[in-house]
Amino acid sequence: MARYVLKRLAIAPLLLIGIVTIAFVISRLIPANPLVSIVGERNMGNPTVVAAAEARWGLDKSIPAQYASYMGNLVRGDFGTSFRTKSSVWDDLTERLPATAELTLAALLFGAVAGVLLGVVAAVKRDRALDHLARLFALTGSSIPVFWLGLILLFVFYARLGWLPGPGRLPPRTLPPPHLTGFYTIDSLAAGNFSLFWNCAKRLIMPAFVLGWGLTGIVSRLIRASMLDELYADYVRTARAKGLAERTVMIRHVLRNALLPTITIIGLSFGALLTGAVLTETIFSWNGIGSYAVEATRTLDYPAINGVCILGGAIFILTSLVTDVMYAVVDPKIRLS
Amino acid sequence: MENFGNPVNTIHKARRPRRQLSGAVAALCAISLIAAACGSDSGTDSGGSTPAGDTATSDTAGSTSSGGDARELIIARDMDLQTLDPQRAYCDTCQIYLTAVYETLIGIDPNDPNVQVPRLATDWSANNDSTEFTFNLDPNAVFADGTPVTSADVKWSWERLANIEGPASYLMGGYTAIDTPDDATVIVTFENPNSAFLPVVSASYLGVVNSKVAEAEGGAVAAPGAATDDQAEQWFLSNSAGSGPYALASYTDGDALVLSRNENYWGSTPATFPKVTMKQVQDSTAQLQQLQAGDVDIAMQISVDAMGQLEGDPNIVSNTVDSYNYVYIALSPGAVGAEGLVDDNVRQAIKLALDYDGILDVTVAGAGQKQASPIPNGFIGSADLTLPEQNLEEAKKLMAASDFPEGFTVNAMYPTVNVYGVDFDTMMQKVQQDLKAIGVELELQPVEFPQWIDQINAEGIPVTAVYFAPDHTDSSQYVQYFGSVDGSSWATRAGGGAAGAQIIDPNQNELLAQALASSGEEKTKLYTELGQSMMDANIIVPLVNSQLVQAYAADITNMHNSACCNLELNLLGLK
C-alpha cells in the first residue's frame, strides 16, 4: 500500500500543474478586464493610470510570458500577490483555510453521522413511517436551496427566537482565541476558555447544518439501499442462525459492509464541501476560502483564482487518496496497487 | 454633538433588548427538527431573551475586545476595500477609513456640501485666477505618535498621491509646484486655473500621512517614479500613520476593519467610541437581522423595502436622507451597433419616453429623487435645471421625425450590480418596457463588471447603465467625467470607445475652463450652463438619485451622510 500511496503522491504535482494551466488559460480567455478592480471604473479611460497598473501587476507582458513568470514563482513557493487584497495569496489562503476547514468538518460530521443514523433507521424500519420521514428529510436536504435555507434559519433561530447566535465565527466585541490551529473551537479549548468554545461551537450549528444537510440525504439513502442489499445476504442469515443479537448483526455485519460505498461518498464530499461552501460562507459571514474564491472570480483576481484552484486541486487529490486507502482498510479484500 | 468627549465609562454596556417573539414563532414548527436539537442547549446558555451570541462576550473576560465599561461601535457593511494605502485607496469604504485616520487640510460641513470647515489648516486662500492656493496649518496638529504635522508632510503626501499613478491621482492633476516656505505653510501652484482645488483638498484621498514614519517603516516613496518604486502598500494593511481621531488596529480582508481611538488626537472633536469595528456583512438582510438582534450598532446597506421591518422597534432608528449618488443610463451614438442613436431626435425621444416616477417607484420604492443633469441635486449648477418628465406624445413625434420612424432594436449591455438600493436588472427591465412604447427594443445583456468595462472601453455600448458617487464636492468632476470635454471618460465611451472618435463639444471645453477660473455666482451660472449643455447632448440620462437608508441603534447620535467622506466616525456620539 505504501508504494501505491507514494505513486499517487508522485503524480500529484503533475495533476496540479495541469489544474493551474487550465485555470490560467480559462481566466485569460474571459473577455473581461481585471484592471477595473484595481484602478476603478472611472480610471479605465486614464492611460497613465492603466499603464502603471499593468506594469505593476505584470499584465503588460504577453500571456505566455505571464504564464512562465507565474510558474517560475510557483516553483519557488510564491503564489503571487492578490490584485484585490494586496496580500500574498499564500497568506490569504492559509488565513482562511482553518475557517473553511472547521466549518467543513463540522458539516461532514453532521452529514455523515446523521446520514448513517437515518439510513440505518430507514433500512430497519423499511416502508414504515420512520422510513418515509427519513426519505422526506433526505429529499428536502438535497433539494432545498442553500441560500434560502440559510436566510430562513437565521431569521427564525437568530433574529426571532434568539436560540442561536448570528453570522460570524465570533461573538460581537470578542477577540479570537490565541492562534494555535485557526479552529476557534479547538483554540478556545486549548486556551481554557470554555465559554468561548461553547459560543464558537454554537456558531457552527447553523452553517454546518446548512452545508451538511445535503450530504445527510445522500448518505442516508445510500446506507439504506446498501443495508437492504446486505440484509438478505447469506452471511446475515448465518449470523442470525448462530443466535447473534439483532443489534450485533446490524452493526457488526450489515452496517460494516454497507458502509463501504458510503466511505467513497463521504471522502469525496469532504473536498466538495471544502471548496463548495461559497453560499454558506456568504450568508453566515464566514471568512473562508469560499467567500475568497467568489470575490477572486468576481474581480478577475488572477493570482487568487489560481491559488484557489491549486488548493482545491490539492484537497481533491488528497481526499481521493485517503478515501482509497480507507476503502482498503475497511475491506481487507481490496488490495491497492 | 453634545456627547463629544464623554468619558467612556459613562457609556452604558447594557445590550439593546431583542425584539419580542412574534407570531412568527408558529411558523417554526416547519423546521422543528433542528429546533429540538438546538433548543435545549441554547436555552440554558443564553437565558431569557438575550441573544445567544452575547453570553461569551460577557463571560469571556480577557477575550472581549473592548476593555472596562467602554462600548465598541460595530458597523455592518459590505466593504469594498482593496487597500488601506491612503494614496492608493479609492472606494466608498475607503472614504470612511481615510477620514477617520488621515486628516485633510479642509473638511466639509456634513449638512452642506458647499461649506468648507477647517481641519489641519486653520485658514486658506486662493489668488484671483485660482492658480495658487495657500494653506496655513494648525500649529497644534500632531500625528498619532505625537510628532507635529508639518508642511513637509502635506507636500510629501500630495506628491505621493500624484506620482503613484493610482486611481485618485487625477485629483492632483495640473499642479506645477508645492512649496513649503515654513513648517506651517503650504503653497500649491497650478498651471491653469483650478477653482475645484479647495473642494478637492477636502476629499479624503488628500489626507496627510506622517511622511517620516511611512518612509522609514513602510518604504513609501513620494518622488517621481513612485508608481514603481513605492513598496508601502502591504505595510499600510497593518499600520497607519495619520493624525485623525482613529488609528488602524487591525484589518482582515473579508472579516473586519478595526480602528482604535487616537488618544493623542489634537482636534476639537475627539472620538466618542474607543473602538470601531467595521464588520464585513455582505447580505443586507443579514445586516438587518444583526441590527435587530443588537449585534451591530449601525447597518449601512439596508434596503428601503426592509425599513418596514424596523418600524415600531424602539431600539432602532431608521430613516432616509438625500444622497449625492445616482444611477443613470448612457446613450452612446458612436458605439458599435448604435446607428439608431446617432440621430439626436431619437436620443431625445428616448429621454422623453422614460417614466421617471415609475422608475423611482420600481427601483427604490419612491425613496429617491429625479435629477436633471449629470450634476446631482445639491451641487453647484443643479438648482435651476428642469427635472425630467415623461412625455410619450412628444417622444413619438420625435421618433416619427427621426431616421428610424419604425423604431429599431439595440443592444443594452449593463453590469449586474445592485448599488444605492437600485437593482440594475429591475431598472433595465423597466427602461426596456418604457422604450417599447416608441418602438425602441432593448436587447438586455447583463454581464459582470469586468466584462462590461472591457466592452465599454473597447467599442462602447449603445445603451447601458452605470452609477456615480462624488469624490469631492466640486461640480467640475461631473463635467470632466460625463461632459463632451477633453479627457472625459464619456466623451470617449459615447464616441465608441477606443475604436471610435471622441465626442467633443468645444463650447463645453470653453465653459469648463471659465468655470475653473471663476467663483461665486459666476461659477454657479457657468456650471448651470454646463449642466444644461450636458442635458441637451442627450447622452447621460440620470434616472435615480437615490436616498440613503440610515438604520442604527437608538442611542447613537449625530448620524449623518457627508458628501466628502461618507460617514465621519468621530462625529458619532452616544445618548
Short overview:
The complex is a heterodimer of chains A (337) and B (575). Chain A is mainly α. Chain A has helices at residues 2-29, 35-39, 47-56, 63-75, 89-124, 129-143, 146-160, 184-190, 194-231, 234-241, 246-275, 278-283, 289-298, 302-330.
Question: Could you name the key traits of this structure?
Answer:
heterodimer, A: 337 residues, mainly alpha, globular, B: 575 residues, alpha+beta, 7-stranded mixed beta sheet, 4-stranded antiparallel beta sheet, 18 helices, disordered N terminus
How would you portray this structure in words?
- The complex is a heterodimer of chains A (337) and B (575).
- Chain A has 337 residues and is an all-alpha fold.
- Chain A has helices spanning 2-29, 35-39, 47-56, 63-75, 89-124, 129-143, 146-160, 184-190, 194-231, 234-241, 246-275, 278-283, 289-298, 302-330.
- In chain A, helix 9 crosses helix 11 (246-275) and helix 11 (246-275) packs antiparallel against helix 14.
- The radius of gyration of chain A is 24 Å and the shape is globular.
- Chain B is α+β, with helices and mostly antiparallel strands.
- Chain B has 18 helices and 23 strands.
- The longest helix of chain B has 17 residues, at 520-536.
- In chain B, a hairpin with a 7-residue loop joins strand 2 (106-108) and strand 3.
- Classes of the chains: A mainly alpha (337), B alpha+beta (575).
- Chains A and B meet through helix 2, helix 3, helix 5, helix 7 and helix 9 of A and helix 1, helix 2, strand 10, helix 9 and helix 14 of B.
How many H/I helices of chain A? 14
Gross geometry of chain B: globular
Which sheet architecture does the biggest sheet of chain B show?
7 strands, mixed
Distance between the termini of chain A: 7 Å
